Every structure is written in C-alpha cells, then in structure tokens.
Amino acid sequence: MRAASPDVWAIVEKASGRVIGTIRMGEYRAQHGRASVGYALARPYWNRGLTTEALRAVLRFGFDVVGLNRIFAVCYPENPASARVMEKVGMTYEGTLRDAAFEKGRYRSLKVYAILRREYDAPGRAPSPPARGGEP
C-alpha cells in the first residue's frame, strides 16, 4: 500500500470556475486496503455525466495512487440516479443496510455498492480516461 491521504475535492464547472459539488474519499482503512467515496452535486448540473467523471477520477486515485483494494459507496434506495452513477463506473450492488442512517428524525436504509481492484484492473474493462488537470 502506498502512502497517500484520501481527501475532499471540489467539482468545478469548467466554463465559470464555480464549485458545483464535492467528492470525497473517507472511511479510509489502510490496514484493510479500503475506503468509501461520497459525492454531492448541485441540482442544475445533474444528468450531465459530471458525477460519473469525478467518481472515475477518484477510483483511479484510490487504486493507482493510494493502492486500495476496495472502494465502496452508499445511496438511499429512493435515489436511483446515484445508484446508476456507481453502476456506470463498474461498482457492484452488494446489498441494503436496513435503517442504517438516521436523518431528519427517521431511520433510512442504504444501498451499498463496491468495486475491487481486480475488477477495476480486469482485462476488457474500459480504462478510465486520464485526469484533466490535477488529481483526481
């Protein structure tokens, strides 16, 4: 495992330079070779492929720079767009954690998606495009 610290990055609109979202790598456990990812994007920028592009870059950073073996993410079951982003980058649905989060006075379930290094590196898998600018 290479030494590097996971972080939070801004998702920036190229035309204006405005920050329109964030993506982070958290729950980093070096001894287990795993981390989580999470993202948020301003609603006017949804459905443009921006989150998918950002998540591909963070997966590349996690596997190629940090040296992780597993990267996972969660979403609410009622958020199919977020689940689709995870599927587009090659993450696999692993199950639902029932009532795993407490938000706004109620418990909510979380769908878990993950990708392993061997899946990311698999022959025939379309490579992530190179990062434009700084990492990720």
Overall number of strands: 6
Terminal CA distance reads 18 Å
Q: What would the CATH topology be?
A: Aminopeptidase
CATH level 1 class label: Alpha Beta
In the predicted model, the low-confidence regions spanning at least 5 consecutive residues are 1-5, 129-135
- In the sheet with the most strands, the strands line up as 1-2-3-4-6-5
Quaternary structure classification: single chain
Descriptive report:
The chain is an alpha+beta fold. It has one domain: 3-Layer(aba) Sandwich (Aminopeptidase), CATH 3.40.630. The chain is built from three helices and six strands; from the N terminus they run βββαβαββα. A six-stranded mixed sheet has the order 1-2-3-4-6-5. The radius of gyration is 15 Å and the shape is globular. The two termini are 18 Å apart.
Entry keywords:
22% helix, alpha+beta, disordered C terminus, 136 residues, Aminopeptidase, disordered N terminus
How are the secondary structure elements laid out?
Elements: E1 8-12, E2 19-29, E3 34-41, H1 50-66, E4 70-75, H2 80-88, E5 92-103, E6 106-116, H3 117-120
Parallel strand pairs: 3-4
Antiparallel strand pairs: 1-2, 2-3, 4-6, 5-6
